[in-house]
Write a structure and sequence with these properties.
- Two copies of one chain form a homodimer.
- Chain A is α/β, with parallel strands linked by helices.
- Chain A folds into two domains: 242 residues, Aspartate Aminotransferase, domain 2, CATH 3.40.640; 101 residues, Aspartate Aminotransferase, domain 1 (Alpha-Beta Complex), CATH 3.90.1150.
- Chain A has nine helices and 14 strands.
- A seven-stranded mixed sheet of chain A has the order 2-10-9-8-5-3-4. In chain A, strands 11-12-14 form a three-stranded antiparallel sheet, covered by helices on one side.
- The longest helix of chain A has 22 residues.
- The first copy, chain A, starts with a strand and ends with a helix.
- The model of chain A has no long low-confidence stretch (mean pLDDT 97).
- Chains A and B meet through helix 1, helix 3 and helix 6 of A and helix 1, helix 3 and helix 6 of B.
Chain lengths: 359, 359
């Protein structure tokens, strides 16, 4: 029996997508084998790859001067790829906003290859908010400006896109496809698939094509956006099954009404949970109201000693993976696109009951 | 209906593995979701990862002083990773044997980071053989010695493991798990999964632990074997579904009798096909007898103008993906572990019939 899954990633996938994959797992499109067993250069798989790109372009209205890349190594490989791809055209300095653990990982890797200017940091209040733009100290010669629109662990989301001088680079792993996006305001967008796109093992990159010639000369082949773009993301054998499943998710998203529908749904889901948290005397959100994530909702119990009981009983009630990240503790409910409204309703009902019994 | 699949990669997977994956695709082990939808750090997935490693260790008798890594980016990422991980301890020079297209890709990437000494090359006879060891010119100070035990495109296989002075590094993408292996003779073994291990999107690395401290200081995080080893191959979110499927393949291999049984089977399958090719006046193998691959069997028709007809009719007969690599033309039958003897029998019967009708 399928349960409600609040995992932060690898996360819930749409059930119709899994059902289709299941049905055709042994014999795909009458080919006589699985989609996993055909050459990535076969006409059948090429059609999958092209449709996935086109559907993603449609969903996010990606302009023609942007390349869409399907990459390996997740967002973490991109933490290295970003300085390697952008520090080769003069400036080896970049602006970063420090909003929590994922921003920090990106910063740490960039520092190995050049200067990092921390434009703003939310460390002063335990990374519980997105720093306001009016106090930012941008560099004059930054090769790029990096931020994390949604911190998966901290549950902090920027309610706006920063206006910056240099090409804007964003780790959208946990927020991509959850609302309409002005892609034209970015230089490079990247996202690990395992939250709002598909299974783990594939990542999406969206890069403005004038940025493809700025790589450091020694860039390892596997990190080069230009090589990926020139080779239709097939410089090496791509993760074909993950690509295929991502494509099915894109088609599912379109059928749901696209990112406009997802924006509406994600607001509804997150407001339902935040509304409950704010009314409760027992549960609370550690995140500043104006920076609360629609995707990842951390919350804590008034009595920490009940954490284990909460996790045990919620799992028994069919509500999976509510444990907070091991580095911060507490609870976290991730409300990605494939998590239905009914899941959040069931969660809130469970929490209300738990509060009554233990509060 | 499942057909016989001779694809060079992504290649055929064992049908029982696909059936199990299909059955539990929506609800895995009664967890209430797919294996794709659970955290890679959950106890359930950790058990999958650990079992996969242990089963691979059992299959290949991997000694305790070797680390087993599950990596992203395929063998191609390792072409960069090898010099990055091994050129930091003094020598920035390496020995390579040039046996064809895959060796060449490895050489090209290593040359960007140090000196490459071509110990031997089979270019003189169009890469149709594995150069004999007696004429090799090894360096005195090589950081490592790299070779390609099986060239997937050329269909050339080394019938022995080279005796060399420096740590031996081998791209085993298309030959791993097809026979017993003296792992202790190697410094680093790597293999993209999509031939004899599992679906594309994951690669296996087996590294002797004293080689983990030789990396160049600027090595990108995603290429570091040490970081992969220290983090149980979970420095970033791993490709969980590909890892799980690889684990199922390892269990299937054990049930078949392990690599000893695969060695026997691969000899039987390849000898059946080579025997037919050698008796035929119409089909022939371009590879020197002593270097013929048990895994990838390229062959050509006496009359090239019949290639298209052969491919069309073989596909209609339920024999998939016999087209040779786009760079060399002709035909190629890949006979990995998951390709049953019956597939080769059907292929030989079809070829005999085709010869009779067209020869």
């Amino acid at each position: 029996m399928r349960k409600f899954n609040f995992c932060a990633g690898p996360a819930a996938l749409p059930e119709p997508v899994l059902r289709q994959a299941q049905e055709e797992l042994l014999d795909w499109q009458g080919v006589g084998c699985s989609v996993m067993e055909v050459s990535h250069r076969s006409p059948e798989f090429t059609a999958v790859a092209e449709a996935a790109e086109q559907d993603l372009r449609d969903l996010l209205s990606i302009p023609g001067n942007y390349k869409v890349l399907f990459l390996q190594g997740g967002a973490t490989a991109q933490f290295s790829a970003i300085p390697w791809n952008l520090f080769g055209a003069g400036s080896k300095s970049a602006d970063y906003i420090h909003t929590g653990q994922w921003a920090e990982k990106a910063i740490k890797e960039a520092r190995r290859y050049g200067e990092v200017n921390i434009v703003a940091s939310a460390e002063d209040r335990n990374f519980s908010y997105a720093p306001a733009a009016d106090a930012w100290q941008e560099s004059d010669d930054a090769a790029y400006f990096h931020y994390t629109p949604n911190e998966t662990i901290g549950g902090v989301e920027f309610p706006y896109i920063p206006e910056v001088k240099s090409p804007l680079v964003a780790d959208m792993s946990s927020t991509i496809l959850s609302q309409p996006l002005a892609v034209e305001r970015f230089g490079f967008i990247y996202a690990g698939a395992q939250k709002n796109i598909g299974p783990s093992g594939i990542a999406v990159g969206i890069v403005r094509d004038d940025l493809l010639d700025r790589a450091l000369p020694d860039i390892p082949r596997s990190l080069s956006w230009k090589i990926a773009a020139d080779g239709q993301s097939m410089d090496n054998t791509p993760p074909t099954f993950a690509w295929y499943l991502s494509g099915l998710v894109f088609k599912w998203l379109k059928a749901q009404g696209g990112v406009e529908a997802m924006a509406e749904l994600s607001l509804k889901k997150s407001q339902l949970l935040y509304g409950f948290l704010d009314r409760s005397a027992f549960f609370s959100s550690p995140v500043s109201v104006e920076s609360r994530s629609r995707m990842n909702v951390p919350f804590v119990l008034a009595d920490e000693s009940l954490d284990k009981k909460f996790l045990k009983e919620s799992e028994e009630a069919g509500l999976l993976a509510l444990k907070g990240h091991r580095s911060v503790g507490g609870m976290r409910a991730s409300l990605y696109n494939a998590v239905p409204l009914e899941a959040v309703e069931a969660l809130v009902a469970f929490m209300a009951d738990f509060e009554q019994r233990n509060g």
